[in-house]
Amino acid sequence: MILLKRSQALLAALWAGLLLCVGLVAAPSAFAVLERPMAGLVVAQLFQREAMLSLFAAVLLILMERRRAREGAGSAVTAEVLLPAAALFCTVAGYYALQPMMAAAKAGQGAWSFMALHSISLLFFALKGLLVMALAWRLGKC
After folding, report:
1. How far is CA 129 from CA 33, 83, 103, 111, 135, in A?
2. 76-131: per-residue pLDDT in tens?
3. What is the spatial distance between Cα 67 and Cα 98, in angstroms, rounded to a whole number?
4. d(CA 16, CA 129)
5. 52, 53, 73, 74 — which has fewest CB within 10 A?
6. What phi and psi values does residue 116 have, to the nearest 5 degrees?
7. From the CB of residue 99, how many other CB atoms can be counted at a distance below 10 Å?
8. Are the C-beta atoms of residues 61 and 73 closer than 8 Å to each other?
9. How many angstroms separate the first and last alpha carbons of the chain?
10. What is the pTM of this model?
């Protein structure tokens, strides 16, 4: 049981580190050294891979917590389930729902501007980062 919780804490910490590295290091660095169109392509690839990893991490953490709750006869709805579920929502809404809308906005289609959609996407990413850091902090108190 304690090994499972420590594994959850490690996964949450690695996920938080990934989000911080992508958002605070990799994406700004790409725009600092590359031409804007090329940097946009690089960052798009970074966020695509981050979104896939986030889906995997969120689902795995939810399943791990459900197993821990089942073995310990604890509550099925805890912060350790709600935090990754909310981060999962942020990933789906912030990347998978907004990305096609952003592509359409770049092509001059849609009701929203690219910058408005980009801002919303950034807010979802920041919220996801905060949720995952809170999860890592909570799980780290073994």
Report:
1. 25, 11, 24, 28, 10
2. 788 999 999 999 999 999 999 999 999 999 999 989 999 999 999 999 999 999 99
3. 32
4. 6
5. 73
6. -65, -45
7. 16
8. no
9. 11
10. 0.92
